[in-house]
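A further point concerns the way the authors explain their paired sequence and structure data. For illustration, here is how one protein appears when written out as sequence plus structure tokens:
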Amino acid sequence: MIRPLTYTYKGRPIASVDNRKSPRNGRRGRKTRSIVLTGFLVILTLAAAASLAWWAFSCFQEGSVPDETGGNGQASTETEKTPAASSSLPDTGSAPGSQSAALPAPRRNRPEKVTRTARLSEAADRQALQIYSAAASAFQKKDYEKARKALRLLFEKIQLPSGHPLYDRACSMLSDSSMAIYRSGNDPLDWKTHKVERGESLSRIAKKYGTDVKTLTEVNGLSGTSLRIGQTLRIPHGSWRIRVERKNKRLLLDNSGRLFKIYPVTIGPKGESAVTGLYRVRRQQTPDRILFMGSSPSAQAAIHSSEGEPDAGRACFVMKQADVAELLLLIPEKTPAEILK
């Protein structure tokens, strides 16, 4: 039996050529392991990225806003302040009997979080929060004109929807700011003056300016209807306009083409069937009713207080008793009105 030759080097056996590993085979093995390891790392990275994307999408669906920053990541001390319930309007004495409405207290002290029900984009929500904070700061300082300008941006430019968490407080602040400016009597767009002449009566003056005796009595602080020659009366004045939005259940009152106040409205009997279009206000002697007269006999509607009786045969919208009384103090006879869908 012939044994294969065994070569030695320094006393150590050397494997034959057939048993040696090829260097090419070694390189192929290392390359395969490298490809497998790289593929595993790629799959792991993709899985982590997918998990992060799903978490970000879930946060976006919740629509939460982290903070009220002004763009530099730091929230100012003024923007964190919200109007307190004790902040009331100044009583100037120009409108006796009228009560100063207080700004409702905030629900919580931390920044408001906007949910999906706001129906606004994330950028619009942030802008709305900043504008509301600026208005609240101006209102705290009793700068009502600045507060009203900021709040008008929310409703006219951003078009803050009724489902937004800031909507109710913004409406209340806009109402308080507008009424504070109105009662001060410093805005020439809201008031006129009339000097009583010989032979004039309070009813004649009220008819001349499209208002009623009760309104003139209240805004001038008169105890009766007697007047003296040369007496100066303050007359409510302004280019008023009413818009009733059935979809949003609100009444918008404009003065001189700008939003003045927003009233909540409940759709009463036949309110949904009211004819959309233009109307004219017809004031009633009763303090709980306002009529809308259209171009045709069938186009009639009415606003009555929640304590009053609805008009038979007319589409009705229900408001609070205090809101109806306040609206009667502001608008004159034949004020244009519009009923929208």
In short: The first strand starts at residue 7 and ends at 9. Residues 63-118 have pLDDT under 50 and may be disordered. The domain at 240-340 is CATH 2.40.440.10 (L,D-transpeptidase catalytic domain-like). The two ends are 111 Å apart (CA to CA).
